[in-house]
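Many introductory courses stop at the sequence. We go one step further.
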Amino acid sequence: MNHATVAISGFSSEVGKTSLMCELLRALPGWEAIKMTRGHYRSCGKDPHACCVSHLLSDEPVIRSGRAQTYTRGKDTGRYWDAGASNVHWVIVTDNQVEKGIKLAFDRVQATGVLIEGNSFLNFIDVDFAIMVARAGSSKVKTSARRVLSKSTALYLFNDNKTLSLPDGFVLWHKNFADKNHINNLPVYTRDTLSQLISRVRAIHSTSEKQ
């Protein structure tokens, strides 16, 4: 089955990736969602009940699908369901399992469109549309984001205040960013222009269905 594939990546944690995923899922009935989580066989130093997945890792990628296996209120996958996802797949992998894990998850997708949250999988697959999410005023950029920035086709600027523009903090970060030329060529969307971003994704979906 041909399905439109849209990646939601982020410069760092807590930039609004999941919030954007949910906005898109509400606007795209019937789409599925994939959450990619990379883990490691050691303590991450954070609350193990909040973030650590080391106890879930295996010799092969772990993929949980369906509401019974992926719904937890308040967690990212639970929020996908609440936003209207027709199915949710949670991919739990080590660094060496990312490529195999995302391909196995794709094999489970039955819908004509799927949203994937994460960064690292873009090193191994091509998608139809890749959105990089940044938080207004933040200068943090993860290594995994730098590695896949060249695959991004749009930038989404998130702000808790709902008044999204290019604030001074983001402009300063932009001036110092190593790959500024690529950033300059990306269309920038905000909360105010979210409807335009949704329209662009719908157009990609329509093209995919016709192929």
